[in-house]
Amino acid sequence: MRILTGLQPSGKLHIGNYFGGMQPAVQLQDQGEAFYFLADYHAMTSMSDAQTLRENIQNLAIDFLACGLDPQKATIFRQSDIPEVNELAWILSTVCPMGLLERCHAYKDKVAKGISANHALFAYPALMAADILLYDANLVPVGKDQKQHLEVTRDLAQKINEKFGEGTLTIPDAQIREDFAVVPGTDGQKMSKSYDNTIPLTGGKKAVRKTIMRVLTDSTPVEDPKPTEGSNVIALYKLFADESAVNQMIAEHEAGGLGYGHFKQQLFDAYWEYFSEVREKREELENNLDYVNSVIATGAERARTESTKVLDRVRKAVGLR
Ligand code: ATP
Ligand code: MG
Predict the structure, then answer these.
(1) I want to staple 245 with a disulfide (CB 3.0 to 4.6 A). Which of 104, 193, 217, 241 is the partner?
(2) Which segment of this protein is annotated as the motif 'HIGH' region (predicted)?
C-alpha cells in the first residue's frame, strides 16, 4: 500500500494540521510505502514573500521530523523538487470541467473571507490531484476540509482512465478520522493557517497560553452552569485529555461556579504536556539543519524515481510519446 499526504508551508503548523494530517501520517508510516511532502507550490497560492516561504519550508521540514516522521521509513520531500507534478496537473486540467473547480469549498471559503483569488488558488485541486496521482497513492490521510478535493482527484483519475485506458492512473482513497475531522480555531471556525485563528503546534509558553485564553466562549457568568454542546474549549480539550478528564471538565461546566479562565488553563496545561517531546526534538533539529536538509535531498531523489515512472506511463497513454 502506498500512502501519501502533504502539508503547506503557508505559515506556522497548528494543532489542526497535527491531528488532521501529521499524526495519521506518522501512524501510517509503518503500514506501507509512505510519501510525505512539503507543499510549497500550494503555499504560493496564498503567500508571495520569498524569504518567508523559504523559512516556512525549513520550519515545516523540522516539524515533520520533530513530530516523529522517520526518513528511514517515509520519503519526505519538497513538492517543487519534482516539477513534473506540473505537467501531470496540466494533463489532468484538460479533463477537468470548470464546474468541478467552481464547486470546491476551500476556494469558495477563502474568497468569502476576502482572500483574493488567483488562478492558482482556483486550479489548486488539479495540482493536488497530480500530487497524489503522480505517486500511485492508494491512501491519503487528510482532514475533512480536503474530502472534496480527494473526490475531485478520484474523478479526474477516472476520467483519464476512461479516455486513455484503465490502469493509467491509480484511484486513491481518503482516510479521514472523524474524531479529529475539523479542529476548531480560536474563533470556533475551522482552524486554518490563513485565518489567523490558530493554536500553534510549538511556540513560547507565554504566547501560546495567551492564544488559548483567547478561545471564543460565551458570556455565561462564573457562578452559572455553562453550555457544553458546541463548546470550543471542550472540543479542543478532547484532543489532549483522556476520557475521564474530559468527563470531569464537562461535569464542572454543568455544575457552575468555575469561570472559563479556569477551563482554558486546564486546556493549556494539557496542550503543553502533550507536545513536550515535539518541542524538545524541534530544538535539537534546529541546531542540526544539515541533517534536515539532507533528509529533503534524499527524499527528492526517491520521489523522482517514482514520479518519472508514472508520468512516463501517462505521457504514453495520452499520446505525448
Ligand atoms: P491554509 O489555510 O494555508 O490552507 P491549512 O491550515 O488549511 O492552511 P493545509 O496545509 O492546507 O493547512 O492542510 C494540511 C493538512 O491539515 C490537511 O490534511 C488538512 O486537511 C489538515 N487540516 C487543516 N486544518 C485542519 C483542521 N482545522 N482540522 C483538521 N485537519 C486540518
Ligand atoms: Mg488548507
Answers:
(1) 241
(2) 9-17
Q: How many CB atoms lie within 10 A of CB 166?
A: 9
193 is catalytic: yes
Indicate whether this model's pTM tops 0.90: yes
CA distances from 185 to 10, 107, 217 (A): 16, 19, 12
Residue in 193, 226, 238, 264 annotated catalytic? 193
Ligand 1: distance of its center to the CA of 66 in Å?
A: 18
Residues 134-173: tens digit of each pLDDT: 999 999 999 898 999 999 999 999 999 999 999 999 999 9
Q: Which domains does the chain have, with CATH numbers?
A: 2-183+289-318 (3.40.50.620), 203-274 (1.10.240.10)
Q: Which atom of ligand 1 is nearest to the CA of 141?
A: 18
The β-bridge relationship of strands 2-7 and 33-38 is parallel
Q: Is 110 designated active site? A: yes
Q: What is the DSSP string of 115-152?
A: PPP-HHHHHHHHHHHHHHHTTT-SEEE--GGGHHHHHH
| Cα–Cα dist 198/212, whole Å | 9
Which residue in 66, 86, 10, 74 sits closest to 37, CA to CA? 74
Which residues lie across from 37 on neighbouring strands? 6, 77
Q: What is the DSSP letter of 28?
A: H
Q: Supply the DSSP string of 269-287, one letter for each residue.
A: HHHHHHTHHHHHHHHHHHT
